[in-house]
Amino acid sequence: MAGVNLMEESQRILAINSDLLSSQTRSCKDEPFLNISPFQKRLETLAKKHGLSDVSQDVFNLVSHATQERLRNILEKLSTISLHRLEVYRDDPMYEVGLDIRSQLRVFEQIDEVERRKRDARQRDILMRAVRSRSRQEDPEQAKLKEKAKQLQQEEEEVIRKRAANSTALAAIGPRKKRKLDEILEATSSTSTADSPSSSSSPSSSSLHGNQQVPRQRMRRVILKDLIFVMEQEKETTKSVLLYKALLK
């Protein structure tokens, strides 16, 4: 181009950009995440053990920011894992039950219950026959059977009495309260419905939803199992002593 020095123009543009970047960098205040005084003493002690005499302030700031970033990543993973822990796959059409251990155990328990009832019925029949017998000369075995039959009858009456008392108490208490998992699922479904694009597309629908009470967002709960799962997946902590201590708790 005639009359224009491209070299001077490019240097002027670079100088302007560098001034803007330096002003933006100076406007950002560097706030350390960790408490400086105890952290500085700890880091200096570790440096002396490894033969390092001087540790600059930039090292403290860098390690502090690295600690903050590390904790942020762990908390993000814990938040995601806590949602997966509460997710119910039974109603998802993309999943099918391959092996239901609970149902199998329930079947075995029902079979054992039927066998136990049959044994109890046979034993009860023997005891009732012994009670109905009117032989004048009773041997000690028959007397024991009669005594056992009386005890069995008293136990059955006590069980019937307890069932009646429990049913009366449940009727007085009222319907059962919702479990925490049901409340979480209801809150999640209502929140997803309120945040859907169809509700915010038209102004009329948004005005209608504005009058309704927005459900309060529930706090996510993280337990020790979530942290153990994260530590098992992390390369740095998969064989650490801290993980083994957490597993022993």
UniProtKB/TrEMBL annotation:
UniProt entry tagged with the keyword Nucleus: yes
Entry's Gene Ontology molecular function annotations: DNA binding; protein heterodimerization activity; RNA polymerase II general transcription initiation factor activity
Protein name per Swiss-Prot or TrEMBL: Transcription initiation factor TFIID subunit 4B
Keywords on record: Nucleus, Transcription, Transcription regulation
Biological source species: Desmophyllum pertusum
Family stated for the protein in its record: Belongs to the TAF4 family.
Region annotated Disordered, chain positions: 131-150, 187-217
InterPro entries reported for this sequence: Histone-fold, TAF4, TAF4_C
Entry GO terms, CC: transcription factor TFIID complex
Biased composition (Basic and acidic residues): 135-150
